[in-house]
Amino acid sequence: MSTQRILTGITTTGTPHLGNYVGAIRPAIAESQRQDVETFYFLADYHALIKCQEPDLVHQSTREIAATWLALGLDTNTSVFYRQSDVPEIPQLCWLLTCVAAKGLMNRAHAYKAAVDANREAGEDPDYGVSMGLFSYPVLMATDILMFNAHKVPVGRDQIQHIEMARDIGARFNHIYGDTFVLPEAQVDDKVAVLQGLDGRKMSKSYGNTIPLFLPEKKLKKHINKIKTNLLEPGDPKDPDTSTVFQIWQAFATDEQTAEMRQAFADGIAWGEAKKQLFELINEQIAPARERYDALLADGEQIEAVLQAGAEKARAVSRPLLAKARAAVGIRPLHG
Ligand code: TRP
């Protein structure tokens, strides 16, 4: 069997936050250090256009996300790190796959269905505000994956359906045109924490409850102070298992530190003190990366050069695979 190839994409909307770090970036970088797998990580900037039509935001987010992964130590010698839009084979293959993807399959995609349901509820036309980009989003995502013959795709639970659609589309192509694509599997890690945000719901840009990863120290402290707690006084025993402060603590602490904090909650640690300790724990872990981040962010040229080198490595895979897929469908030179 060939080396397992692991691939995942990050949509370039928004600024990376602690939830992205704990739930996606940290485990992805750890995985990239394994000797027995190949990792492909990319900035999904074509996907960003589906959600965001503000050019400056897409551009800035691309820069921030790239700088974040590099600052956190992603080794681009061992991992292939690239920008989707630097791989022209992707939109080309996307069309070939669009022509085998069943429309009925797309009708069932959660993101599209949610938009239709919201429109119905509001008494609008069901397809109000739905672009073809949103509708065929799963085909583009399938292309990202099939283009590199990825075996495993680490994603959150909300993305499992998309990976299944990628399998479906890949299998259909293989069935019609002969074996061309590896059929991918979703990799959902239950041990990876889904971090809570300031209000106790899942930390997510769409809830506006995030703590950005590389805030300047003072601002990080301020944000942590905004985490919702209850009215229990210093000295009152507190329940760690319903506390966002504790939940975030756990995502950064060693087992021993977690046990200590659990005890401190039982002993009635003041919220202010618990937050102060949380700030110190997080700050200590991210401060060195934050310095690298600030330096990288100010040096677009360096990031660009890294991405271009990544695109070359990616295209060493995508060019021959596109050629194979084109030949399979009958697009090939007329001699021979
Ligand atoms: N749709 C994914 C998300 O919003 C991002 C993404 C785009 C992706 N293409 C991908 C993830 C391919 C994994 C594989 O999170």
Short description, anyone?
The chain is mainly alpha-helical and 336 residues long. It has helices at residues 18-32, 45-51, 55-71, 89-98, 103-107, 110-121, 132-135, 137-146, 160-177, 217-225, 244-252, 255-266, 271-297, 300-329; strands at 4-11, 37-44, 79-83, 152-154, 185-187. It is globular.
Description:
The protein is mostly helical. The chain has two domains: 4-193 and 300-329, 3-Layer(aba) Sandwich (Rossmann fold); 214-295, Tyrosyl-Transfer RNA Synthetase, CATH 1.10.240.10. The protein has helices at 18-32, 45-51, 55-71, 89-98, 103-107, 110-121, 132-135, 137-146, 160-177, 217-225, 244-252, 255-266, 271-297, 300-329, and strands at 4-11, 37-44, 79-83, 152-154, 185-187. The strands form two sheets. It has a three-stranded parallel β-sheet with strand order 1-2-3. Strands 4-5 form a two-stranded parallel ribbon. α9 (160-177) links the parallel β4 and β5. α8 (137-146) crosses α9 and α11 crosses α13 (271-297). The longest helix is centred in the last third of the chain and has 30 residues, at 300-329. It is globular, with a radius of gyration of 22 Å. The site of tryptophan (TRP) has 12 residues, from β1 and α8.
CATH architecture of the largest domain: 3-Layer(aba) Sandwich
Content of β-strand: 5-15%
Oligomer: single chain
> What is the approximate shape?
globular
User: Which sheet architecture does the biggest sheet show?
Assistant: 3 strands, parallel
Number of H- or I-type helical stretches: 14
As for the CATH topology of the largest domain, it is Rossmann fold
Q: Provide the spatial order of strands within the biggest beta sheet.
A: 1-2-3
Bound molecules: tryptophan
CATH class of the largest domain: Alpha Beta
Low-confidence stretches: none
Number of strands: 5
Report the average pLDDT across residues: 96
CATH superfamily of the largest domain: HUPs
> What structural category arises from helix and sheet content?
mainly alpha
Report, as a whole number of angstroms, the end-to-end distance: 33 Å
CA gyration radius, whole angstroms: 22 Å
